[in-house]
């Protein structure tokens, strides 16, 4: 049986995500209902995966539709039209994940927990399925009361 995510370690991820989205993407997101989830994505999904090492181990995924990924990239690039998820738009999305996870690492450091992050890995596909050593906690982030992006937190304190 997989270890679950300790809820006291969830807030730094969410706090960082909401803050960075508001400042870098100019979107004020809300938090939906968290749920334990598998890492199986039936529809076409854009994923950004960032590994967590140090005093916590695991991974964090940002999952969204391709259209939402294009909208985020466009907003990050000053409103430039993004017709496809090319190298430039994927780079912008990877940088967004770096900012979120870097800020998360700082929040954990302030709690006396030292973590490092791996470079982001982006994937776009249909019926994607990933594995994690820790049970995933899915937290939907909403925009205008609709799920816009989901954060999958699969980390445990060592």
From TrEMBL:
Keyword annotations from UniProtKB, A to Z: Chemotaxis
All residue ranges annotated as the Chemotaxis phosphatase CheX-like domain in the record: 48-138
GO biological process per UniProt: chemotaxis
Annotated InterPro entries: CheC-like_sf (IPR028976), CheX-like (IPR038756), CheX-like_dom (IPR028051)
Keyword Glycosyltransferase among UniProt keywords: no
Xref: CDD domains: CheX
Pfam families given in the database record: CheX
Keyword Transmembrane applies: no
Protein name: Chemotaxis protein CheX
Lineage: Bacteria, Bacillati, Bacillota, Clostridia, Lachnospirales
